[in-house]
Amino acid sequence: QVQLVESGGGLVQPGGSLRLSCAASGIIVSINVMGWYRQAPGKQRELVACMTSGGYTNYADSVKGRFTISRDNAKNTLYLQMNSLKPEDTAVYYCNVGSYATCSPRGSWGQGTQVTISS
Q1: How far out from the chain centre does Cα 48 lie?
Q2: Which of 13, 39, 63, 94 could cross-link 67 (Cys pair, CB 3.0–4.6 Å)?
Q3: What single string gives the DSSP state of each residue in 45-76?
Q4: Which secondary structure element, helix H or strand E, spans residue 24, and what is its range?
Q5: Alpha helix segments (H runs only) across the chain
Q6: Tens digits of per-residue pLDDT, 15-63?
Q7: CA 5 to CA 109: how far, in whole Å?
């Protein structure tokens, strides 16, 4: 059974940083396409960042240059380093297994982690 547990969210001032973690069990992060997604109030869930098994990464235009997706194979954990945070980054952030071509989410959603950017 696949379980993905997100953590690391919180309340941060604009310009601040956070690192989100996604601890995985039931799957091996390093051999799957893995993505970070977010859903802001009143909006659809969107892809934020994606990493392939080969280490290729891609990002939503809105976060390029500010967010970095990475993984720790030994810990079977996916990360999202978020810098220069903006109020529009406020959302619940989720990780999921992604499809190969588009990183569309394939699995069930976890509880997510709330990120709030506010002064």
Answers
A1: 6
A2: 63
A3: -EEEEEE-TT--EEE-TTTTTTEEEEEETTTT
A4: strand 18-25
A5: none
A6: 999 999 999 999 999 999 999 999 999 999 999 999 999 999 999 999 9
A7: 9
